[in-house]
Write a structure and sequence with these properties.
heterodimer, A: 210 residues, mainly alpha, 2 domains, two-stranded antiparallel sheet, B: 491 residues, Fumarate Reductase Cytochrome B subunit, 4 domains, 22 helices, 2 strands, 69% helix
């Protein structure tokens, strides 16, 4: 097991931070190139116009989860030493719901708002300011109220294969099949004429640049 | 000369594919004039490369002692080895000279990179255009970094006729060639491809990088790559140093200069470029000088004839495209993002995120203003546990990089400008207010869920964490609901 590399060998903290900047650079570059600096492009996903967001999201999940699995099978990566977010059922449920509401209102998520703000979009900048206020309000004001939710339903570092009692490879296969299904549906909807928001549109559909 | 523009002269010279015949006197005059052919940097690199290759080949041949690969006679091995004292000293010499060679070429590559990019812009080489054939051509042009060196259809034809001619199957005239003929270009491509192979396999062998099988494979690959280069090197040395007609080329590598006649005959296109440069300069210092001062008389007459027809030609405005570059294909972007996550997991054992940048910088600022409150706050205090500081974290530097990377990409794609994205039915003020409100919800939600779309959704999703997948489906589901509620603001 040679990876995670920085947990096997001693690397100076300065180099770790330097590499973090480079990784962040690539992250920002990819997000911008995918079109996530544009709130309309992100929001278009929810109005059945342009599913870029969902396509990128699921492709990343497919490549990433399959990749981790293969890294482990090849004996490169020690899965016990990587960071796996802890599961708190109520925390993620309520948090996900609040965040999901933010999608419709603001049009960005935190990462994409940074992208948008740094390319000069004022709405992105306002979103970042709002996200800062929202973030700080959690610790300063809402923590006592939301404590029960935040720590609710703790399950620790549990993964889907452990939950369902199946092999991780099977789980990844299910995810890949599900992802391909999502791609198939989204491509159909994008190209097809089905449009539940038809009567609300001021501009014809597919105004968003691809 | 005053009434001719540079562009017109360029077009007029373009009529001549081959150098027109000149009288003996004109040729004599041309021979007297010197023209610059190489920069000092190019000459230095060339001779550094030449001496390094001589020393590396000499020691390298003597280093091969395994009976499987050995080709040099024993007495040669003894001579070279005795010169260095011990075989170990010779090996050290070979390795460290190789390292110096790699360093010099890396520096050369780094400093030459801007020039390289500029050349691409000028010759409009792009991988994005055209069919598979054009893409292949662009790819090999990019490897060279110089459009004068990439193979085109003429070259393929040239190679075909040349090879058929050698075996006596064709007597068709060879098509016109640029400053390098197809054979030279082909060799250039070979060297450009083999040099990295030589460097990498050499380093692998010298410093035992990687598993045993890799080191074992590096040996034949190293020999093979060197063999390819040496096969062409013989022709190169013969042409440069021995072949009488190419003598000026050899001296040009020492002085940097070459007679105009040589350029005129052998590198006609390059000669045209120099003439245009001289023309621009003359026009500035002495507008009254005539074309005859620049060109041989008989040629000047011919060029003037052509210029007559080009009198009204105006240089077209450079076609500067202000439209933004197209977005990436979503699947491609997803694969790139997935690979980036894998790389981060492989190196750090963690994923990427964004939202905790805000909480960490916020905690840092709060701590500056009110340290007692911040460090005793139930939630913020966890950033100080175990002697940690809020800013001393991967996430801080990653988001700094993200901001730079996004700006860089936006700038390159012509999307970095101050504007507001909004639906058609609302004012800018409403949009800014909505974005701020949406931000508050996102910031709060991301804290409750312990991460945002990237930190929880992607990072947790890839590791198959249960909570992350729950989060993803809830966030997307509620997103659709919220979008329905706020449809007036977007549609």
């Amino acid at each position: 097991m040679i990876a995670p590399i920085f947990k096997q060998i001693v690397v100076s903290i300065e180099f770790q931070y330097f590499l973090a900047i480079l990784i962040g650079f690539a992250f920002g570059y990819i997000l911008e190139r995918a079109g996530f600096g544009n709130a309309r492009k992100i929001a278009a996903e929810f109005y059945f116009e342009d599913f870029t967001m969902i396509k990128v999201f699921f492709t990343t999940l497919m490549v990433g989860s399959a990749g981790l699995l293969f890294f482990n099978w090849f004996g490169w990566l020690d899965l016990d030493k990587i960071f796996i977010p802890k599961t708190y059922i109520w925390g993620q449920l309520v948090g996900g719901a609040i965040l999901g509401m933010g999608f419709g209102v603001g049009g960005y998520c935190p990462g994409t708002s940074f992208v948008s703000a740094s390319t000069g979009k004022l709405d992105g900048l306002a979103f970042v300011a709002g996200a800062f206020v929202g973030t700080m309000s959690f610790g300063d004001i809402f923590y006592d109220w939301l404590k029960g939710v935040y720590k609710g339903g703790p399950m620790g570092k549990i993964t889907l294969p452990e939950l369902f009692g199946i092999n991780a490879g099977v789980m990844v296969l299910i995810i890949i099949i599900m992802g391909l299904g999502v791609f198939w549906i989204t491509e159909k909807v994008e190209k097809g004429s089905w449009d539940p928001y038809k009567k609300f549109r001021k501009n014809p559909r597919r105004m968003i640049e691809r | 000369m005053n009434n001719i523009t540079t562009y017109q002269l360029k077009k007029a010279l373009d009529y001549f594919d081959y150098p027109p015949k000149l009288s003996a006197k004109e040729m004599d005059n041309m021979r007297q004039r010197k023209m610059k052919k190489h920069d000092v940097a190019i000459m230095l690199v060339h001779w550094f490369n030449a001496f390094t290759w001589i020393l590396m080949l000499t020691t390298g041949a003597a280093l091969i002692i395994s009976s499987f690969y050995k080709f040099a006679p024993d007495f040669y091995l003894t001579i070279v080895r005795d010169f260095f004292g011990t075989p170990g000293a010779m090996l050290q010499f070979h390795i460290w000279l190789g390292v110096v060679w790699i360093l010099v070429f890396s520096a050369y590559t780094v400093f030459g990179y801007r020039k390289y990019l500029r050349k691409h812009k000028i010759s409009e080489i792009s991988l994005k255009r055209g069919g598979i054939k054009e893409k292949l051509k662009a790819l090999q042009c990019i490897i060279f970094g110089n459009s004068a060196l990439c193979l085109d259809e003429n070259d393929i034809q040239w190679l075909k006729i040349r090879v058929l001619g050698i075996i006596g199957q064709s007597n068709v005239e060879l098509p016109p060639q640029g400053s390098f003929n197809a054979g030279q270009k082909l060799y250039g491509l070979l060297v450009a491809l083999m040099t990295p192979v030589i460097m990498l396999t050499g380093l692998t062998m010298a410093f035992h990088l990687g598993p045993l099988w890799l080191i074992q494979w590096a040996i034949p690959l190293h020999f093979l790559a060197v063999g390819f280069v040496v096969s062409g090197l013989m022709v190169h040395v013969y042409m440069g140093a021995v072949f009488p007609e190419e003598k000026p080329a050899f001296f040009s590598m020492v002085t940097g200069n070459v007679s105009e006649l040589f350029l005129y005959r052998h590198h006609f296109n390059f000669w045209k470029e120099r003439i245009i440069k001289q023309f621009e300069w003359r026009k500035e210092v002495d507008p009254d000088s005539k074309l005859e001062d620049l060109l041989p008389d008989s040629l000047a007459v011919k060029v003037e004839e052509k210029l007559e027809g080009l009198k009204d030609l105006v240089e077209p405005e450079p076609n500067r495209d202000l439209r933004p570059t197209k977005f990436w294909n979503p699947y491609f972007a997803g694969v790139m993002l997935g690979l980036l996550f894998l790389f981060t997991y492989f190196v750090y054992g963690r994923g990427l995120g964004a939202s905790s940048f805000l909480s960490r910088t916020g905690t840092y600022i709060w701590n500056l203003i009110a340290p007692e409150y911040t460090q005793s706050n139930v939630y913020w205090s966890h950033y100080f546990h175990g002697g940690h500081t809020p800013l001393g974290n991967f996430m801080i530097f990653e988001v700094i990089g993200l901001i730079i990377g996004a700006y860089w990409s936006g700038k390159k794609a012509k999307r970095a400008k101050v504007e507001i994205h909004k639906g058609p039915g609302i004012t800018n003020k409403v949009r800014i207010f909505m974005a701020f409100a949406g931000g508050i919800l996102m910031g709060l939600g991301a804290r409750v869920a312990r991460g945002c779309t990237s930190g929880q959704g992607l990072t947790g999703g890839i590791t198959l964490a249960v909570g992350a997948w729950l989060f993803v489906f809830v966030a997307i589901g509620v997103g659709y609901f919220s979008a329905y509620l706020f449809r007036r603001y977007w549609l």
